[in-house]
Design a protein that fits this description.
30% helix, 9-stranded mixed β-sheet, 20 strands, 422 residues, alpha+beta, 5-stranded antiparallel β-sheet, elongated
């Protein structure tokens, strides 16, 4: 056989021999206690191309192989010679074993940053919540609608529709890793969201759900392969507390979970909980502070206590952003419509909400933004701005001066302030 064509797809080391139609794949690599590298190896022979152009392979053999074991390689080569009726397998197995060991142990090479092509496209996958290739942490107390909003964000990415946030890339498949609910419950919710936003039935091959029970670290090899096979661009984890597979307060457990997340090499939305303790710091999710520290973006959902029938209103507050200044609070209302007989979710709608009109959430809005929102309704006197925003006049006056210097507001005369026209 001639030298093979090599490619690495996620965790899969793939060798294709074009002259013989043989393809060898190695994955699930792991070093044992003796320092040997063990892998699952699959050998296949090319079949006739399908009508879609995809080249299928008929399985010749599948085994678990110690790549550094002379005896193990020899036994596999002998089996392949018997099953295929051809010779030369000893050299083939030795070559792919040695090359795989070398590439695995070298790991990711050091890169001269001066040679790296800097991206010029939009940094957002879903503005302003999820960046391309980076992890977002999204947390709140239980029952505040974070799972619905997380699903709405994922559906926005999958369809290109602005349910919660603005998609900035072409529609892309998403994978929802679920430690809390089953596929039937989530399909019911997803269908209700699709109906509520005029999307009809759940779109095919865009929104994948995986029922989880092992930790994300224990599952990461299978997940990386699935992400590669399905072309996944966003992984949603619901919830991080269960995904860790250990005590949330443990720095070691949390860092291991985020190391697994990093290895997925795609955008990530981690849904987490907030302790209801009054003494807790509301800027941090429950558990180790490393959940906050490792995430590039962190959003907290604060639910309004002023309830309306079948409606939950929340303020999404940006508590951390690594790649720019913090983002203004975002308001959303979730409207539920259940079947009157079965009480099943029929329609779920996620709508933007003006937080300055929600009494117990308007303090989440930046003071400058509260003044600007008040002035959208037309010119106002200082006393009117104070009344509209709930801010004291000795706070509003310097805000107006600052906004004027920024060209955002103007003094229209007679003590009336308004938005600048430029």
């Amino acid at each position: 056989m001639t030298s093979p064509n090599f490619e690495k797809c996620g965790d899969i080391y793939r060798y294709t021999y074009g002259d013989t139609g043989i393809q060898i794949e190695l994955d699930r690599l792991k070093e044992n206690r003796e320092g040997d590298l063990v892998a699952e190896i699959r050998i296949g022979r090319q079949k006739a191309p399908e009508t879609n152009g995809k080249v299928p392979y008929a399985l010749l053999h599948n085994a678990r192989l110690n790549l550094l074991s002379t005896r193990g390689r020899a036994e596999l080569a002998k089996e392949l010679q018997i099953e295929s009726g051809s010779e030369g397998w000893t050299d083939v197995i030795k070559y792919v074993s040695f090359l795989t060991v070398d590439k695995y142990r070298r790991g990711e090479p050091a890169v001269d940053l001066s040679t790296v092509e800097i991206p010029t496209g939009n940094q957002w996958l879903l503005k302003p919540f999820i960046e391309v290739g980076n992890p977002t942490l999204f947390f709140s107390p239980g029952g505040s609608g974070k799972s619905i909003l997380g699903m709405a964000m994922a559906l926005s990415v999958a369809t290109g529709e602005s349910l919660c946030g603005s998609p900035m890339r072409a529609p892309s498949p998403v994978l929802y890793l679920d430690w809390e609910a089953d596929k039937e419950s989530q399909a019911e919710r997803l269908r209700a969201l699709c109906i509520g936003h005029g999307l009809g039935a759940i779109p095919t091959k865009t929104f994948y759900h995986r029922w989880m029970y092992a930790s994300i670290g224990e599952s990461v090899i299978a997940l990386r392969r699935e992400i590669t096979d399905l072309g996944i661009k966003l992984v949603v984890c619901d919830s991080l507390g269960a995904a860790r597979g250990g005590a949330p307060e443990s720095a070691e457990v949390t860092l291991a979970a985020f190391a697994a997340v990093r290895s997925l090499r795609c955008s990530f939305l981690g849904i987490d909980h907030l302790t209801k303790s009054k003494e807790a710091d509301k800027n941090y999710a429950f558990g180790s502070v490393y959940s906050f520290n490792v995430s590039r973006l962190v959003w907290r959902a604060d639910m309004s206590g002023v309830s309306k029938p079948c409606t939950t209103t929340v303020a999404l507050v940006n508590t951390k952003r690594n790649n720019g200044p913090k983002i203004s609070a975002q308001g959303y209302s979730i409207v539920f419509e259940n079947d009157p007989v079965t009480d099943r979710a029929q329609v779920i709608t996620v709508k933007r909400a003006e937080l300055t009109t929600v009494e117990d959430l308007r303090d989440r809005v930046r003071q400058d933004d509260r003044v600007l929102v008040a002035l959208r309704r037309g010119g106002l006197l200082l006393a009117d701005i104070v009344s509209e925003t709930g801010l004291p006049d000795d706070t509003v006056s310097p805000i107006l001066s600052r906004l004027k210097s920024q060209g955002k507001v103007s003094n229209l005369g007679y003590g009336i302030w308004g938005l600048s026209q430029s």
